[in-house]
Design a protein that fits this description.
Shape: globular
Distance between the termini: 43 Å
CATH class: Alpha Beta
Structural class: alpha/beta
Strand content: 5-15%
CATH topology: Rossmann fold
Number of helices: 7
Order of helices and strands: EHEHEHEHEHEHHE
CATH architecture: 3-Layer(aba) Sandwich
Oligomer: single chain
Number of strands: 7
């Protein structure tokens, strides 16, 4: 039996990157997965692939702008219509923008807040009652290494990721009596399109950044390499399944030792 047999989990930002790997792993562990994203073509392709591998009823796609209240209501309706319930949520969707604080336009700051922070809030608010109605379950929020420390040029991002940890702790306290555990993952440098622009456009001038990033992190991180989205997904699985049954309100760092300190070796 899989670790998530009979579970129904909605994963945001699931069309690529960490969310995609979470959806794949969850399906492999027996879950029914709602793949939610604004990237329609990629999301539908993933659902088709999961169906071919695990069965036609294993996944559904729903277009979800996490900053839109109406989209959340629609996503919940799709999940319940397809699978009858929701008992897990992974608030994975997020965006990253690089800028000095004093040069960050208000519109850019608000865009990051809308996706990373408001999106997590709306997800908790929309899905927690459904999880309670299903008899309890889990919420996993995606924070960041920068949610626990500072980092130049990512002020808007870091602010939202600190906020996600606050939401996580408050939600954990408020929802524990309803049978809902709420935790957060804090990834460091992970090899996805969001942190490696070369993956978005291999023909762009940034196409060499993959090797450059790898060399940078080899010097910076104690483990000497950038992380893989599959490694984050494994942690999210742990926090979503029964193996973490006595854990709630906690941040879990998956960063190759980055937060421990810069390695001189």
């Amino acid at each position: 039996m899989g670790k998530l047999d009979r579970r129904v989990v909605l994963v945001t930002g699931a069309a690529r990157g960490q969310g995609e790997q979470e959806a794949r792993l969850f399906a492999a562990e027996g879950a029914r997965v709602v793949v939610a994203d604004v990237l329609v073509e990629q999301g539908e392709a993933l659902v088709k692939e999961l169906g071919e591998e695990f069965g036609a009823d294993v996944a559904r796609f729903v277009r979800l702008d996490v900053g839109d209240e109406g989209d959340w209501a629609a996503a919940v309706a799709v999940a319940k219509d397809a699978f009858g319930k929701i008992d897990g949520l992974v608030n994975n969707a997020g965006i990253l923008r690089f800028n000095e604080l004093v040069n960050t336009p208000l519109a850019e700051f608000e865009q990051v807040v809308r996706v990373n922070m408001t999106g997590a809030f709306l997800g908790i608010r929309a899905v927690a009652p459904e999880i309670e109605a299903a008899g309890g379950g889990t919420i996993v929020n995606t924070s960041s290494y920068t949610g626990l420390t500072g980092m130049p040029l990512v002020g808007a991002y870091a602010a939202t990721k600190h906020a996600v940890l606050g939401l996580t702790k408050v939600a954990a306290m408020e929802l524990a009596g309803k049978g809902i555990r709420v935790n957060a993952v804090c990834p460091g440098a992970v090899d996805t399109a969001m942190t490696n622009p070369a993956l978005l456009d291999p023909d762009a001038d940034l196409a060499t950044s993959g090797a450059a990033l790898e060399a940078y992190y080899r010097k910076l991180l104690p483990m000497g390499r950038i992380g893989r989205p599959e490694e984050v997904a494994a942690l999210v699985l742990f926090l979503t399944c029964g193996d973490s049954s006595y854990i709630t309100g906690q941040p879990f760092v998956v960063d190759g030792g980055w937060l421990a300190g810069v390695s001189p070796f």
